[in-house]
Specification:
It contains 29 helices and 26 strands. The protein is an alpha+beta fold. Helix 8 packs parallel to helix 10 and helix 12 runs parallel beside helix 14.
Length: 980
């Protein structure tokens, strides 16, 4: 029977191992001892280990704990080391006798499994043989039954794990409820750890475990998958198979800061929860969001998203952060920023809980703020943003209904104003209603009726005429207003090689007697769109008389020297006799006309001329310390005073002024019976930058920009909504020296300043900034390259730092060993200021100290300057060069006192010339000598451009001034239907 039954000694072995099985970790520390008390065992190298208990001197054999429930129940309550975990390893099939395997008869095997040779077999009688054979069959059947029974027990133990014993409560381990979430600083700078929660809610703090996230779920999935593994075909492979499957139950962990036994393993059957380091970060983020510390929460969330992309719960926290930040911004008064947060959240998750209500809160507040200030475009803007995301939102319906109600009420007011013949008010109300809600029924007809009767043009600018500035000459703002405000006897009509002229008062003018006399035929009527009055010969004589009187402030020395007498032939015909035939009669009579004043009346008008510098008196001097006198400067005054009250023919006057805009209105309104009306008002709106002005043009807030930057031209040309028009005269940039600054009379210093400027680089990088090169050109004279007086054979001034430094040293020696500190002014334009700043820096690099002044004096006193970055548009060099070099609004012989004698003689010679050929020859000679002596530094000329919306009609294809013939323009009624 000993060969036909299971070797019961294996059962005894199991019993002994169960009685002596224990965790084999060295209890060297209190923490390790506590771990051992709840069944934690370290991982060691080696398959077996000598027992450490009393009487245990033999190595414990390996035991498959999944084979026997009693061992499995014990082992599952312990944390084992991977290398020293005690397991029983039984050979297949648990040391069953060979006869159970059906290989040979039991007599052919010994207890140890070795065969018995045929020579030692015993034989008996047939009856004995039958009994022997019967016993063999019986033993075989019994063994098969027992084997089947044991196999069922083993399978049951493998498929159905035994109930886990509840671990004893450990008062020394922290409980989950007592664990504090680490701070943000600890999570970001400390070593990451995970929390393992045991069934008794105790927490073990370990190094980050794997797999992650959802550790328990992933390990349980692997266990379920292992149950489907195919069983080994060979019996000797079964123990390894079972050990491999059994190892899936254990989680490999490492203790923080453990050096002796760093690696452990624990059964997942006693672990109820794994709180990963990333989960702790999410808990801290939740706490920070509840406290309103959005900045800290964002930083923690950013680190989490970067280190663990796609971690469960990260997206929800990101969305919650956006929602809470949006609501917090609304409470802080930053509703527009809150709207941006909510839109970002809507893009990520349109159905996020609380988003719809938050949208309603933010949009209601934004619309209420906009309606309070009557900024209807802003209100429509936010309503449109909400409509794109949720067309059925209640906040959109509320805002739309309120704007519609206000628009209808405004249209009713416009109808009442029109009935009372307050056409300007009616047009204003119609535009206001269109801005409020353009989809109002009947809006198109109302705007056509009211805005068509009183046409208004809105223009975007960055400076107004008359604003205080450090620049002492006519800037672009005054250039715009110059011909809009007052009419002159002759005005520029265009420019080819020379300027072309026309007159709003004359039907014709004809020189007679070889140009010594001129007969002027005045127009007896006006067209319906002209606002200038009818001018008679007596009125024209009275307007010219003050300019011929030496005692009058408007005395024009050049005109008085040319005119001998005036005679009124008829009410509409005037004859003027000249002492000598003038070379350009029209250029002499460009100044706006004034009303008649008494002879000898020296009371100055409120302004001599729009944008002109005040005269340079003899006592005025340079800004440099050694001169000690005051240079010329243009007085600052309100825009309402830029138009003289003595103006004979004003066109547009200042009607209203607010911090945001100035309105210039036609002096003489058009009659109500006309079938077609023209421009009645120009409203200049000021913006902080040209970028904002372009934005206003695109939005429809303005319909014209009078000065485009070179790099904006192509972009607006491609837009079908606009006309981009090039002006007839380019803008020339020069560096001008004050004639009374003693230091600048040194030729070496002037040439050093010229050679130090890298003009080509500045033109390309500062002025044009990527625009086509043909829009800006280097020049050698202050007049246009297209002018007949321009000599293209004059060489450019090159950039030579070495020569500039040498000349500066030479000038320093001439001036007594020290260069004075020079002050430079420039126009109030961002591009010009940037170019002037870089020029000043290049001069300083060559040892020439120059300070750029861009702001006016606080007390309004004139700026003392030595150098001027100046911009100008010169059409008649023969007439305009003298005032340019002497800093005077008119040519005066006394002002030539500060110029070199050769230059004064040349200017007088040109002024006394009566034919163009001689004047052109003298100007070309002067062109070359001005550059050689460096009396000024020509820089470059840049083409000017205007842009109109296509509802503006009647402007010239190549105007000389931005508002040329503005009285004849028409503005078709238009309002923007596009969402703002």
């Amino acid at each position: 029977m000993r060969h036909c039954s299971i070797e019961l000694r294996m059962i005894e072995t199991i019993r002994r191992h169960r009685a002596g099985f224990r965790c084999r970790a060295n209890a060297t520390t209190p923490d390790r001892k506590r771990w051992k008390e709840i069944g934690i065992s370290p991982r060691r190298h080696g398959d077996t280990e000598k027992g450490k208990g009393a009487g245990d001197s033999q190595a414990a054999p390996r035991m498959n704990t999944s084979t026997f429930p009693m061992i499995s129940a014990f082992s599952d309550s312990c944390l084992y080391s991977r290398h020293s975990r005690a397991m029983l390893s039984l050979p297949w099939p648990f040391s069953v006798s060979p006869c159970l395997r059906g290989e040979k008869s039991c007599s052919d095997h010994r207890t140890d499994g070795s065969d018995v040779s045929d020579s030692h077999r015993t034989t008996g009688t047939p009856a004995r043989g039958i009994r022997k054979e019967f016993g063999r069959v019986l033993r075989t059947a019994l063994a098969s039954f027992l084997a089947l029974l044991l196999s069922s027990v083993v399978a049951l133990a493998q498929e159905t794990p035994p109930a886990e014993p509840e671990p004893e409560p450990d008062p020394k381990l922290p409980k989950l409820k007592d664990m504090a979430v680490p701070s943000a600083e600890e999570l970001l700078t400390g070593r990451p750890v995970d929390w393992l929660v045991i069934r008794n809610e105790s927490v073990l703090v370990v190094e980050p475990v794997n797999p992650r996230p959802d550790t328990l779920a992933k390990m349980q999935a692997k266990i379920e998958e292992a149950r489907k593994w195919p069983r080994p075909a060979k019996p000797e492979e079964m123990p390894a198979f079972l050990r491999k499957r059994d190892s899936l139950v254990y989680l490999q962990v490492a203790l923080p800061g453990e050096s002796e036994e760093p690696e452990w393993q624990i059964s997942i059957r006693i672990v109820t929860q794994v709180i990963h380091h990333e989960d702790l970060m999410l808990r801290r983020i939740d706490l920070l969001l509840n406290e309103g510390k959005f900045r800290d929460a964002y930083e923690l969330l950013f680190v989490l998203e970067r280190n663990a992309p796609g971690w469960p719960g990260t997206v929800e926290r990101r969305h919650r952060l956006l929602l809470l930040e949006g609501l917090a911004a609304v409470k802080e008064g930053r509703a527009e920023a809150g709207m941006a947060y909510l839109e970002d959240l809507h893009t990520r998750d349109p159905k996020f809980d609380g988003l719809k209500a938050a949208f309603g809160t933010v949009v209601d507040k934004l619309v209420a703020e906009s309606l309070e200030t009557e900024d209807f475009l802003r209100a429509r803007h936010f309503l449109e943003r909400l409509r794109k995301r949720d067309p059925q939102h209640e906040a959109f319906a509320r805002g739309r209904d309120e704007l519609l109600r206000r628009s209808q009420a405004t249209l009713a007011l416009a109808r009442d104003a029109s009935s009372a013949k307050r056409f300007d008010e009616a047009a204003l109300l119609a535009h206001k209603a269109a801005r409020t809600w353009p989809a109002t029924p009947g809006m198109a007809e109302a705007v056509r009726q009211h805005a068509g009767r009183f046409q208004s043009l809105h223009v975007g600018v960055i400076h107004w005429a008359g604003e205080p500035t450090a620049y002492p000459f006519e800037a672009d703002a005054e250039w715009r207003l110059q011909r809009l405000a007052e009419a002159a006897l002759f005005e520029w009509d265009g420019f080819d090689e020379n300027a072309r002229y026309r007159s709003p008062f004359l039907d014709g003018w004809e020189p007679v007697d070889l140009g010594r006399r001129a007969v002027f035929s005045l127009r007896p009527t006006r067209t319906t769109w002209e606002s200038t009055p009818v001018l008679t010969s007596a009125g024209l004589m009275g307007a010219l008389a003050p300019r011929l009187d030496a005692r009058h402030p408007e005395y024009d020395e050049r005109l008085a020297a040319a005119v001998r007498s005036m005679l009124g032939r008829t009410p509409f015909e005037l004859e003027i006799s000249f002492a000598r035939a003038p070379m350009q009669l029209e250029a002499l009579l460009q100044t706006p006309l004034r009303r008649t004043n008494r002879v000898g009346d020296v009371t100055p008008p409120q302004n001599l001329a729009v944008g002109h510098a005040s005269p340079v008196e003899k006592e005025s001097g340079p800004a440099s310390a050694e001169a000690g006198a005051e240079p010329a400067a243009r007085p600052s005054m309100p825009a309402s005073q830029l138009i003289s009250p003595d103006a004979l023919a004003p066109r547009f006057l200042v009607a209203s002024r607010t911090p945001e805009q100035v309105a210039y209105r036609r002096v003489q309104p058009e009659a109500d019976t006309l079938p077609r009306f023209h421009l009645a008002e120009i409203v200049e709106r000021r913006y902080p930058s040209r970028d904002k002005a372009v934005q206003a043009l695109l939005r429809g807030d303005v319909s014209m920009l009078p000065d485009l930057r070179p790099w904006d031209v192509d972009r607006l040309r491609e837009d079908a909504r606009f006309f981009v028009i090039k002006q007839a005269l380019p803008k020339t940039h020069i560096i001008q020296f004050h004639p009374q600054t003693k230091a600048l009379r040194t030729r070496e210093l002037r040439r050093a300043l010229a050679y130090a400027i890298d003009r080509e680089t500045l033109l390309r990088n500062v002025i044009l900034r990527g625009a086509p090169a043909e829009r800006g050109r280097l020049v050698t004279a202050p007049w246009p390259m297209r002018s007949r007086a321009y000599d293209r054979g004059v060489a450019q001034i090159g950039h030579d730092p070495a020569v500039a430094t040498a000349l500066a040293l030479a000038a320093k020696k001439v001036l007594g060993g020290k260069l004075p500190e020079l002050k430079m002014v420039c126009p109030p334009d961002p591009i010009d200021e940037a170019a002037a700043a870089q020029i000043a820096a290049q001069w300083k690099a060559r040892g020439i100290p120059v300070t750029l002044v861009t702001q006016p004096e606080a007390d309004g006193s004139p700026i003392k300057w030595d150098l001027c970055y100046r911009t100008l548009r010169m059409s008649e060099p023969a007439v305009e060069l003298w005032p340019l070099l002497t800093l005077e609004p008119q040519a005066r012989v006394a002002s030539l006192h500060f110029l070199p004698q050769w230059l004064a003689r040349d200017l007088i010679a040109i002024d006394e010339t009566s034919d163009w050929q001689t004047a052109t020859s003298l100007l070309r000679t002067l062109h070359e000598r001005l550059l050689a002596e460096t009396e000024l530094i020509p820089l470059w000329e840049v083409d000017d451009y205007l842009v109109f919306r296509k509802n503006v009609r009647g402007f010239r294809p190549e105007p000389v001034t931005p508002y040329q013939d503005a009285e004849s323009w028409s503005v078709d009624p238009w309002y923007n239907l596009d969402p703002p």
